[in-house]
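Example record

One chain of 165 residues, shown exactly as stored in the release files.
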Amino acid sequence: MPFSLPANFNPGDSYTNVHANNVAAAINAIVSGIRTASVVTTESTGSSTFTDLATTTDQVTVTIGQSGVAFVMLSALITTAAGYGGNMGFALSGANTQAVNTLNTIVVNAVLTGVSGCDHQIGGTFFVQGLVPGATTFKAKYLASGGASYPAQFANRQITVFPFP
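Predicted structure tokens for this chain:
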């Protein structure tokens, strides 16, 4: 049920149990719908296209509500060779199918020279809209901009999805 108050709800208007129950139901739907998956293990890829890592439990399935909206949070410790980068994004399957959108990725580009590599714990939050209601799996995907010659490592990775009613 999408959350909404009457359009003409003004200060001083009577706030009934129905209103309170609607607000409580909307908050509970958001809170109980949040899903998180974490993988601590350090794993790497030399793929220059988005792919899975060895441990594939970095995915969550949520129910997208009538709003068609979800917030997706990604975080990881990304280690790359100097001059190269690593990306973490997500793909959708189920009621919604979508390949990784490069606008919705976290990226480390190690632009320093003269060092053996760089690592950064980073994160990002992405607003995803236009989804259809239903069970949707959000799966983390990874790439190394340097390909097989300069793989990227990912550790402490996490994906969290907040579906809205």
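Notes: The longest helix spans residues 17-33.
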